[in-house]
């Protein structure tokens, strides 16, 4: 289709001018974001630079053990970040987040890489790492939103949930409405993205493939798979996390959550 244009260090230096523009606007409007922009930009360059070197080495070695080790690290960091971003906490939240993201990534990631795309060998880092990375990143956002909404429901509707339990409702029956609201909240970002994809915005993977010289039709096909993959992982992850949180926080004795 086309040729791939490589960027030099000087090209990246020129791109720094874009951050300078943003910093200038911050200074002109006295937004107080200049330092934050500088720190964020520096961290972005260092982190992405380090990741680029690590992935280059993983791609060269092409070892299944190395790929699995990197995926495990990504999984752990994603689950930890999901807990950190949540406004509310409870005992066992870290384990619940880790279990949720592990099950979600395995169920959806293996389906996409091994059945839909048919990656061969199964551990090919060129496909496996980016696809699982998108699952981790988007599941993180979805389950974080879901968790906040579900815990907010238990806190604000605690008496109602406990009243249902007193009248003989099961745990599932007592929290079903809160779980529905939580899963719906976790699904909102991907639904919004799918609604405007191709009309208002060109999604990241599709744009990257086109820039790299892939056929626009193939880029669209891959992006559709990725969008549907993210929708499935968000729905599955939100539902599972709400279920695990309910098992820890709701019993026949009531709701064990701080009402403050």
Question: What does this 3D model show about the protein?
Answer:
Strands 1-2 form a two-stranded antiparallel sheet. The chain is an all-alpha fold and 260 residues long. The chain has helices spanning 9-29, 34-61, 64-85, 93-116, 125-156, 158-166, 171-196, 204-211, 216-249, and strands spanning 250-251, 254-255. It is built from nine helices and two strands; from the N terminus they run αααααααααββ. It folds into two domains: 1-61, no CATH class; 63-255, no CATH class.
With strands numbered from the N-terminus, the spatial order across the biggest sheet is: 1-2
* Structural class by helix and strand composition: mainly alpha
Strand content: under 5%
Secondary structure: number of strands: 2
Topology:
Blueprint: H1 9-29, H2 34-61, H3 64-85, H4 93-116, H5 125-156, H6 158-166, H7 171-196, H8 204-211, H9 216-249, E1 250-251, E2 254-255
Antiparallel strand pairs: 1-2
Helix pairs in contact: 1-2, 3-4, 3-5, 4-5, 4-9, 5-7, 5-9, 6-7, 7-9, 8-9
Key terms:
two-stranded antiparallel ribbon, 2 domains, 260 residues, single chain, 2% strand, mainly alpha, 9 helices
Short structural description:
With 260 residues, the protein is mainly alpha-helical.
